[in-house]
């Protein structure tokens, strides 16, 4: 049987299998000429060796542009590569100017016209293809009549942020009229190669087959990185983050998406989605704990667990466990609040213990660079792809839904097994519509003029105007708590006073140092003195005698800002390399005059800890670092022991600040200043303006935003030889002190 785009062609006859390759090629060429198709695939079925199925795809005539339009698109892309912004175009999400699109053997997938409309379906397909084929170059193309429109730019930026789009987007006002609105994907190999067009609703398997035909899969070489990867750990080199909204990364919250409540213990759980963590806090905004440290897929203690864009949460009070959706990892995770550990609930954790397990299959399909088998029968329809919402049914089932409410996975909570997969929003609402309505209806208690515009005007589903916010709203005591993912805040509406406010968070030391501020040791060694591409606030060199060196760093914070709370030790990270070794800073005790070796230092520290009572130890841990703001400066202390040779001391810190309203600047100007201060390495003015425009949608004044100003100091120390005593045998011990002044103004 011959089928055309998955539909049997009228009058198609059974085709007998040719006996040789030459005849086979002739049959295929005849079909190409007969049906005017772009590609054919010849499949032999083992159970019927004399029968051949011809599978091919084509593009409707309405989607076929003339060659002149194809050339125009190709020229438009190539001509805009050198400039982020020009008279007829601008790029979004470009981290640097690159000519990578000019490669002759590179394969490119262009997502056309999907950004100013509901594009969840298309973007899910594209992100899955990105994960499966790392060598695929993806970009977006959006026609826009008004290039200078701040509204359009901020809307595109919000889509990039909310959908976690990591590929660049080209916006142009040059109309390519012959490319129909029906076209959603443009695929080509090399800039000079032909374009293959696919409709927006093309099946994923057809698109993937076309990509596999163009991509030549390289033979994977087993290296150190490959051998270190577990069978269930997402490769470190697979992570990318949206560039356009990167200044927002230094806000306290970066796309707060979902909220859950534990009324008994008076705790709230917040998915800080694009920071890849879950924040636990009380009704006063005091941060109690943090789950997850960086993007990845690893179980373990809260401080070491890795997740990728956590979304909806469900707290199981009898288990004292928090179930949450790990959206980009296509998984459901469970956090034990008593033991403070995270485990993977679905797919089952034992899958990674066997080579052919389900979790191993996901890793191979989505994250490895190995070639993916073309056998579409391998695809498990029960697999949870890009889940977002999570609801608990009365029958002890979990309802897991994607953001567009087009797919529902019904999971048995006791076994973690997917019982049923439901497609289509109509059927889904028949099953769990009452639960969605019950959770989202609390927003009806709030006057629409008290809600941010993006929440008040949210799209409706089957008459429920707030259904898409079902995971972003909860009741806590006398309040309705709402996640404002555009304004990067958590709102609190008091039912009694009928007033809206925002949570003022505190106790930031619990969050530790953000993952994006720390340069891995191997990067420091590889880059030498200074890390390429990393903003450094201060570099200074010293020549000192070997021994103990006490370092005091005085940091002058930016003008018109104030420190929100004293700097906590958990917000500081120190690293030494070379001949230096970090040691504890001893306060109010006599310093040892003996030479401290690495081993001796370790034993001395153990003795010091053993001499402390548990109460004293806890009081020291809870005590903020002696880094209060004095005369506009923050003081950070550290100490190292050095031997003859060269060494480097690296200090990173997270300074949580607010801007002050001591000028007559407009709200927009103050927001722009806030974004610039929080992102000192940013050089793209349009990027700063877009992020300021996003923040302007919040009901919060610029002075109320808490943002992180990263501090990065590198000190290079040249240590000479030890001075010798008169007998030429003994070594003279040396203690040194250096003071470093750093200005962030």
TrEMBL record:
Source taxon at top rank: Eukaryota
InterPro entries attached to this UniProt entry: 6-blade_b-propeller_TolB-like
Region named Disordered: 1-21
PANTHER family for this protein: DUF1618 DOMAIN-CONTAINING PROTEIN, NHL REPEAT-CONTAINING PROTEIN 2
Official protein name in the record: NHL repeat-containing protein 2
Organism expressing this protein natively: Deinandra increscens subsp. villosa
Lineage of producing organism: Eukaryota, Viridiplantae, Streptophyta, Embryophyta, Tracheophyta
């Amino acid at each position: 049987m011959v089928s055309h785009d998955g539909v049997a062609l009228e009058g198609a006859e059974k085709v007998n299998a040719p006996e040789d390759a030459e005849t086979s090629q002739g049959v295929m060429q005849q079909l190409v000429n007969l049906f005017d198709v772009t590609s054919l695939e010849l499949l032999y079925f083992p159970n019927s060796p004399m029968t051949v199925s011809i599978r091919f795809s084509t593009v409707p005539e309405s989607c076929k542009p003339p060659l002149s339009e194809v050339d125009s698109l190709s020229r438009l892309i190539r001509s805009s590569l050198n400039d982020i912004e020009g008279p007829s175009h601008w790029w979004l999400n470009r981290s640097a100017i690159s000519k990578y699109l000019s490669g002759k053997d590179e394969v490119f997938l262009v997502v056309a016209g999907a950004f100013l409309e509901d594009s969840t379906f298309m973007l899910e397909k594209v992100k899955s293809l990105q994960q499966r084929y790392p060598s695929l170059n993806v970009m977006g193309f959006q026609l826009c009549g008004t290039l200078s429109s701040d509204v359009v730019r901020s809307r595109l930026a919000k889509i990039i942020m909310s959908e976690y789009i990591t590929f660049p987007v080209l916006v142009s006002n040059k109309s390519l009229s012959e490319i129909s609105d029906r076209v959603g994907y443009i695929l080509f190999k090399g800039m000079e190669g032909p374009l293959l067009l696919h409709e927006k609703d093309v099946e994923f398997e057809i698109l993937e087959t076309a990509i596999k035909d163009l991509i030549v899969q390289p033979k994977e070489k087993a290296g150190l990185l490959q051998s270190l990867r577990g069978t269930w750990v997402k490769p470190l080199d697979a992570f990318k983050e949206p560039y356009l909204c990167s200044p927002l990364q230094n806000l306290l919250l970066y796309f707060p998406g979902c909220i859950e409540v534990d009324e008994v213990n008076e705790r709230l759980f917040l998915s800080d989605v694009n920071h890849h963590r879950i924040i636990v806090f009380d009704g006063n905004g005091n941060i109690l704990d943090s789950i997850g440290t960086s993007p990845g897929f690893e179980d373990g203690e809260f401080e070491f667990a890795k997740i990728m864009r956590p979304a909806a949460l469900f707290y199981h009070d009898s288990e004292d466990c928090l179930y949450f959706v790990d959206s980009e990892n296509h998984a459901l995770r469970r956090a034990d609040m008593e033991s403070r550990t995270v485990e993977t609930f679905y797919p089952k954790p034992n899958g990674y213990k066997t080579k052919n397990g389900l979790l191993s299959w996901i890793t191979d399909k989505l994250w490895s660079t190995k070639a993916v088998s073309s056998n579409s029968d391998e695809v498990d329809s029960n697999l949870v792809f890009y889940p977002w919402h999570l609801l608990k049914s009365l029958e002890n089932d979990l309802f897991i839904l994607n953001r567009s409410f087009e797919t529902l996975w019904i999971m048995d909570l006791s076994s973690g097994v997917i019982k049923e997969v439901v497609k289509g929003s109509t059927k889904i609402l028949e099953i769990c519509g009452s639960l969605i309505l019950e959770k989202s209806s609390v927003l009806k208690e709030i006057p629409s003029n008290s809600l941010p515009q993006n929440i008040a005007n949210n799209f409706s589903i089957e008459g429920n105007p707030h259904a898409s916010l079902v995971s972003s709203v909860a009741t806590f005591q006398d309040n309705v708590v709402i996640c404002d993912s555009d304004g990067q805040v958590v709102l609190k509406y008091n039912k009694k006073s009928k007033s809206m406010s925002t949570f003022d968070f505190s106790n930031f030391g619990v969050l530790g140092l953000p993952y994006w501020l720390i340069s891995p040791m191997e990067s420091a060694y590889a880059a030498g003195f200074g890390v390429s591409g990393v903003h450094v606030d201060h570099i200074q060199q010293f020549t000192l005698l070997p021994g103990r060196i006490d370092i005091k760093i005085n940091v002058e914070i930016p003008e018109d800002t104030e420190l929100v709370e004293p700097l906590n030790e958990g917000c500081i990270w120190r690293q030494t390399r070379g001949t230096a070794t970090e040691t504890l800073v001893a306060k109010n005790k006599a310093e040892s005059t003996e030479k401290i070796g690495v081993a001796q230092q370790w034993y001395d520290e153990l003795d010091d800890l053993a001499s402390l009572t548990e109460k004293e130890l806890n009081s020291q841990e809870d005590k903020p670092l002696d880094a209060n703001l004095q005369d506009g400066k923050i003081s950070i202390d550290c100490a190292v022991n050095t031997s003859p040779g060269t060494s480097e001391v690296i200090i990173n810190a997270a300074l949580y600040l607010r801007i002050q309203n001591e000028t007559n600047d407009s709200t927009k100007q103050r927001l722009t200043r806030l974004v610039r201060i929080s992102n000192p390495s940013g050089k793209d003015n349009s990027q700063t303006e877009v992020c300021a425009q996003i923040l302007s949608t919040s009901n919060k004044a610029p002075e109320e935003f808490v943002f992180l100003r990263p501090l990065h100091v590198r000190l290079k120390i040249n240590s000479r030889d030890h001075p010798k005593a008169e007998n030429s045998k003994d070594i003279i011990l040396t203690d040194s002190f250096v003071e470093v002044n750093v200005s962030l103004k």
